[in-house]
């Protein structure tokens, strides 16, 4: 089965996720610059989530670029990933509107944690399921970066319980780690 | 006429339906974990609807994959299906926010019932209308699974009036029945 | 220049327009069937608008299907059409929530009127601008149906001022007129 | 790497941005024509933003049309542009709902200013990074129009602080300047 519609559908869902987050930025009633100040944390969490959804789109783009065909299992593994990503606007709003309180920051990390596991499952589904994706399997290798991120998200949640900014710092760190799209795939399949 | 734009438009509408449902998950005011508790039923109904819309997208994907061309009637049969699917976010919110009360659960079943009828009509429109889709017609056969679902949704509505959780259990059952994409089509046209 | 991205962008915008209208269907607080009664007019106006946006998508689909290339003017004529279509959710909500009061029904007709003019301008832009679309120009002919609709919308607005249901009846009539996609194009270019 | 998915994703995000702005047009409670009067400024700012997002889509369309392949850096430069565009609905609502008060008009100009810088960065990323885009680099030339716009936005922000309508007039002026898609690229690569 072709992958075109899978890509189109994923692009659509991710495009909506990345865009509806901005609806959390409620238009302020004041007309002076100070009216924007309470929006600071909301904007900050929006920026981080925009980068994260962008990272997922970039990696998803690279991943499926390297794939030749998709089976039924992949459709569900992909939907599973989209499900966790679809919860990012919710935790983004919760974290931002509560000025990075402990529990919302930990909840934000939990969604990142589940998304990273869903991504790892999608990669596995693509590599295991099909012989024609052997090139991808070799290119991905042991997927150390993906596993490291999952562990770091878990650490971020734990650190958020100590102090929310510690957890937030970890999330920024992982984002920087992924900022550059997966060169492993790019290099081997270029 | 080509089917590319029909697929693209359907992908767009289904992607929006599956994503705007998350807007019903209103950001809670509290910052403790208990603040999420009232969201439990909303999240539960969101998960079920996410799976259902995912099932429809998967089956729609498989169905149109097997089709070679579409006529004017198909465009309307497809829009008719999208209409009922577009009401899923509404009944999802109604059911979740009212903690699975009797009438909302029955209303949820009604939308699933109408969507399944719309899907059957779309399949008929595709198989009857065009000679080139004979392969599809043979692959679908008597479409027992589709008809069974429609009957089960009706039973679910009736059971919901006895006790809402009975209806809800039926909806989950049908979802599990459809979880695996339509292997009949996949097998014959692979 | 290719028309693929113009189609993709238009599909995206129209898919969002047709779907966000459902957000006007606010989840009711009651859990009895009567709680849905106040939603009756909103649902009725939603159905009509869903059909109208569907008609525009179908005709847009047929129109661009018959086109080989698009120039800069077409991009703007297309955006102009999308602008008026984007106001349909607004007048749909206004008309439905006010139980088909005079002014909202007339305003609804005004948006349909402007959309039909925008569609005529798009058709002209496509036929005049480019030699390669001569087949389209011949197929469209004098575009009597488009002009008739524009006149009928104007009549509908006037009749709405006498009694809103008269205007509403005219809008339904025009929708029925367009229900079948443009067979003129389909026949000649099939 | 292909550019198809980059175009599809950008089309999706821009389509959502241009459409969700209409959600700021809240359905009025009154049913007389005067009930629409307070919406005047909101509608005016909506029209300007619709034109601006349309301009960006048109130019983006032309720009990527002239490109053969995209690298990792382009994905991020593109996301950076989409980020600033995604804030347009927010400043549109703020400016319109406050009847073009000084600070919101200046903030609107700031988002246009940042978007124009993001667009220049995207153009640079496309021209510098890849040898195959030499045709594009030559076609763009020194990109005087892009730089002029950036300067004019800055001037508009300053003038808005003197009187908001002066700034608004500048934004309209720049929109008119860009109304016609980039003929430089169209001419050379036609």
TrEMBL record, chains A, B, C, D:
Q: Where in the cell is it found?
A: Membrane
Determine if Transport is one of this entry's keywords: yes
Q: Which organism is it from?
A: Pseudoduganella chitinolytica
Q: Which InterPro entries match?
A: TMEM175-like
Q: Which domain of life is it from?
A: Bacteria
Q: Tell whether ATP-binding is among the UniProt keywords.
A: no
The protein depicted here goes by the name TMEM175 family protein
What does the record say about its membrane topology? Multi-pass membrane protein
Reactions listed under catalytic activity: K(+)(in) = K(+)(out)
What family is reported? Belongs to the TMEM175 family.
Membrane-crossing segments per the record: 6-23, 35-57, 63-88, 100-122, 151-180
Q: Alphabetically list the UniProt keywords.
A: Ion channel, Ion transport, Membrane, Potassium, Potassium channel, Potassium transport, Transmembrane, Transmembrane helix, Transport
